[in-house]
């Protein structure tokens, strides 16, 4: 699979439009479902979980993001509230830019706008593929669909070059499978050379 790393806006460019750097503690909430979008967020260092909960209170994880990745971008272009939460998984440093300044930045820097559009289209494409795979009853297809989606955010092109930075429980939450099923299926995928596992770390 050929992957295309989604863009990271240059930090100096962000700062020139009055971006600020903020630090967050583990489990701190950056924004909640129902909040209005006021900022562009880009992770400098750390990890952020994008999630929501159904009526029964069961958590659904949409993504887990790391260094250089942005989140909440699409909501800056439409008059809608966040449909998800953004929760810090470990101490995290983020650069954030007010919505109005962000819009000015992309208006005045057309190359950023084009790259951002390509990135959002890329995310939508792989999100659609992942959603299709999630409808499968085959756990391998669900897991590979997830891994392909996460790998699409990286610069990793080769087989087994992408380090899946998720616990078995997080993979279960993302795929809707039981953690026991994840453990069993990962072992089968390793046997079939679909993944490599070293010291419990999965490479896809």
UniProtKB/TrEMBL annotation:
Keywords: DNA-binding, Transcription, Transcription regulation. SUPFAM superfamilies: cAMP-binding domain-like, Winged helix' DNA-binding domain. Residues 22-106 form the Cyclic nucleotide-binding domain. Gene3D superfamilies: Jelly Rolls. The keyword DNA-binding applies. InterPro entries: cNMP-bd_dom, cNMP-bd_dom_sf, Env_Response_Regulators, HTH_CRP, RmlC-like_jellyroll, WH_DNA-bd_sf. Signal peptide: none annotated. This is Crp/Fnr family transcriptional regulator. The lineage of its organism: Bacteria, Pseudomonadati, Bacteroidota, Flavobacteriia, Flavobacteriales.
